Amino acid sequence: NLIPVNNSFHTTTPSRFSIRSNSFSKMAATKDYRLLCLENPLLDIQAFGDEALLEKYGLKANDAILAEEKHQGLFEDLLQNYDAKLIAGGAAQNTARGAQYLLPPNSVVYLGGVGDDKYAAILHDAVKQAGLRVEYRVDPKISTGRCGVVITGHNRSMCTELGAANHYDLEHLKKPEVWSLVENAEVYYVGGYHFTVCPPAIMELAKQAASGNKPFILSLSAPFICQFFKEPLDASAPYWDYVIGNEGEAAAYAESHGLNTTDVKEIAKALANLPKENTQRKRVAIITQGTEPTIVAIQGEDEVKEYPVHSIDPAKINDTNGAGDAFAGGFAAGVVEGKSIEESIHMGQWLAKLSIQELGPSYPFPKQAY
Ligand code: 26A
């Protein structure tokens, strides 16, 4: 009764211990695929750019947006004129690879939509190296999503054409072989970018989490999600056990929700104390702030804590693209392992520090031990 291996990009072999088989359950230290993640698999087309390039396409130095007509030439421009590299991306897929980096083999499964093309093959290679299981909805007619990433100093401007990622649907989530992974999971992680794609799938996972008293982690992902996808975001809010964002997302949330404050600690507190569906868990709101301390507010608690980030020699930083995703990956791994909040934050900061030394949202291999 093993979870079936379907013909999508499933890259890891199921473990010897069937997660459905009672007879072996006592022998397995932990069961497989305890963390399930959902979002948009993308291929990053990343290059070091300049002011002129940002200006040409009307991009802000530090932003994440969906591509419009005027951005059409960006990908080609990056490849032809800026020596762009093709790197596996998609925010929550980076997080999923990150969590798997810290967890035992076969711990993480990731869902999203891709095409059947050379870009998907690159994603396939990256998740294989990471030991991440993916269950992609493969759309043979639409190309895999791409994200143009322009690095200038410590800023990154991201411009995404979702492609096949935009076609993820409930039908895929409800396929028996996928849904059994959902039911089996013990922790859920959803990237807020998926609110642009399939809010009903997010709600299915959220409800699955709450009904089984399992943690549901949501990343706010980008300011534009807080601003322009407020309705589906707010509908999912009662289900957040952990909500993770950075200072820019916190500010956008505060503004779009009339919180009348720009104080990150106050915003974290407000997020932590939103109404909650599963009252067996107190909500935790986590706001990262680049090199400034990570802020943590817990529902019903007055004190907001600060955790300084791990110091790094600036000369060792390659680029910060994916730093937040890596943080979330380390943090989610801590949640899966039942670590304290403090320890989980530490794991997130440790992984973020590793990731910023790599090109793009990547992690060093061979693996470094935590
Ligand atoms: C819907 N949008 C805009 C997106 C993204 C995205 N991942 C999912 N959906 N826009 C950018 N990213 C990813 O964010 C990572 C860095 O945090 C990029 O692919 C990049 O790897």
Describe this structure in a few short sentences.
With 370 residues, the protein is of the alpha/beta class. The chain has helices spanning 22-25, 51-56, 74-81, 91-102, 118-130, 170-173, 176-184, 199-211, 223-228, 230-236, 247-256, 264-272, 323-336, 341-355, and strands spanning 35-38, 42-48, 63-66, 85-89, 108-115, 133-139, 145-152, 155-161, 187-191, 216-219, 242-246, 284-289, 292-298, 305-307.
Explain what you see.
With 370 residues, this protein is of the alpha/beta class. It is 35% helix and 22% strand. It is built from 14 helices and 14 strands. The strands form 2 sheets. The chain has a 9-stranded mixed β-sheet, with helices on both faces. A 5-stranded mixed β-sheet has the order 3-8-7-2-4. A hairpin with a 6-residue loop joins strand 13 and strand 14 (305-307). Residues 39-40, 42, 44, 64, 66, 89-91, 94, 147, 158, 160, 162, 193, 196, 321-322, 324-325, 361 line the site of 6N-dimethyladenosine (26A).
